[in-house]
Specification:
- It is built from 4 helices and no strands.
- By secondary structure, it is an all-alpha fold.
- Helix 1 runs parallel beside helix 4 and helix 3 packs antiparallel against helix 4.
- The protein is elongated, with a radius of gyration of 19 Å.
C-alpha cells in the first residue's frame, strides 16, 4: 500500500510537467501514453530488482532444503504476482494522471 501511495503522490507532482506539455500541444492521448510508458518502466525495473534481491535468499534456502542451488519455481504464482504488480503500478500512475488531465490540470 505504501508503494501505491508513493506512486500516486509522485504522479501528482508531475502536474507542472503535464501542464507544460499540454501548453506546447500534447494531446490527452499523448500524455496518457507517456505515463503508461512510465508505468511499464517502473513495473519492469521493480520486478527485475525484486528478482535480483530475492535470488540470493532463494538460492540459500534451496541449497539448505534440497541440497541444490536451483529452486523449484511455481511459474503460475510468479505470473499472477507480476500481473498484480503491473495492475497496481498502472492504476497508481494512470488514475491520477487521467484525473489531472480531465480536470484541465
Amino acid at each position: 500500500m505504501a508503494l501505491v501511495n508513493t506512486l500516486v503522490v509522485a504522479t501528482l507532482r508531475h502536474r507542472d510537467e503535464l501542464e507544460m506539455l499540454t501548453r506546447v500541444g500534447a494531446t490527452t492521448r499523448q500524455l496518457l501514453a507517456t505515463m503508461a510508458c512510465q508505468a511499464a518502466a517502473v513495473t519492469l525495473i521493480g520486478v527485475v530488482l525484486g528478482i535480483a534481491a530475492q535470488l540470493a535468499t532463494v538460492t540459500a534456502v534451496s541449497t539448505m532444503v534440497t541440497g541444490s542451488p536451483v529452486a523449484s519455481v511455481p511459474w503460475s504464482s510468479v505470473t499472477i504476482i507480476f500481473g498484480v504488480v503491473a495492475l497496481l503500478t498502472g492504476l497508481s500512475i494512470l488514475a491520477p494522471t487521467t484525473r489531472l488531465v480531465m480536470r484541465g490540470l
